[in-house]
Amino acid sequence: MDLSKAAVLDAIASEVRACKKCGLWRNRKNAVPGEGDPNAKVMFVGEAPGYWEDVKGEPFVGAAGKFLDTLLAEAGLLRSQVFIGNVLKCRPPGNREPAPAEIEACTPFLERQIMAIKPKLVVTLGNYSTAYIFTKAGIPFRGITEARGKFYQANVLGLAVVVFPTLHPAAGLYSAKYKQLLIEDFRLLKAKILDLGLAV
Ligand code: SF4
Questions:
Q1: Which pLDDT band holds residue 199 (cuts at 50, 70, 90)?
Q2: How far apart (Å, rounded) are the C-alpha atoms in residues 30 and 55?
Q3: Ligand 1, residues 19, 54, 107: which to mutate, most atoms within 8 A of Cβ?
Q4: What is the pTM of this model?
Q5: What CATH number does domain 3-195 carry, 3.40.630.40, 3.40.109.10, 3.60.110.10, 3.40.470.10?
Q6: C-alpha–C-alpha distance, residues 120 and 170, integer Å
Q7: How far, in Å, is the centroid of ligand 1 from the Cα of 17?
Q8: pLDDT in tens, 92-117
Q9: Does residue 48 have its Cβ closer than 6 Å to ligand 1?
């Protein structure tokens, strides 16, 4: 393991847990800095912690997390091989959508995580993370429905990465159609990982 990367990520996580840069710290039980392999070639970016993530301080636990594990298996991946982070590190009350000021306050943490990990492939889960990464990459964003399921060669924060937007796994829990689209997207992801030589 690259200890310097792990140390940088640990330092960012400590800052996140103490952060009061936006009002979301007031209601959090736990901040959710993100977790995974500091040397991951594939990084996943979600939206924000939900109820169980806030309780446990870990990303993608609960039903959406279980489904994400199933999707990762479709792509030939284990959680331990990837890094999973969110645009917001604290839970918005009632799981409401992130506010622009919260995104502005929180995303420097995500940016530092991306720059430390230096992934080759960034998978964005849902509208907010895709909009954020597309903006950083200078790619026009017209909604996740149009953007999803395609690979974009991009420059994000000075790094050459392939960006792959898909739906948020939670969408697959309430819609059979979205569940199928997610499974199809993660199968495409598997082929791309093999194509890029990123399989572990
Ligand atoms: S959401 Fe981000 S910016 Fe706001 S308090 Fe939590 S860690 Fe800080």
A1: confident
A2: 6
A3: 19
A4: 0.96
A5: 3.40.470.10
A6: 25
A7: 8
A8: 999 899 999 999 999 999 999 999 99
A9: no
Ligand 1 geometric centre to CA of 103 (Å): 9
Q: What is the mean pLDDT of residues 62-68?
A: 94
- CA of 182 relative to ligand 1 center, distance in Å: 29
Residue with the nearest Cα to atom 1 of ligand 1? Answer: 90
pLDDT, position 2: 65
Give the tokens for residue 146.
């149009």
110 lines ligand 1 (CB under 6 A): no
Tokens standing for residue 144: 């996740």
Q: Which of 151, 155, 128, 131 is nearest to 141 (CA)?
A: 131
* pLDDT digits 0-9 by tens, 144-198: 999 999 999 999 999 999 999 999 999 999 999 999 999 999 999 999 999 999 9
Angle, alpha carbons 20-112-196 (nearest 5°): 140
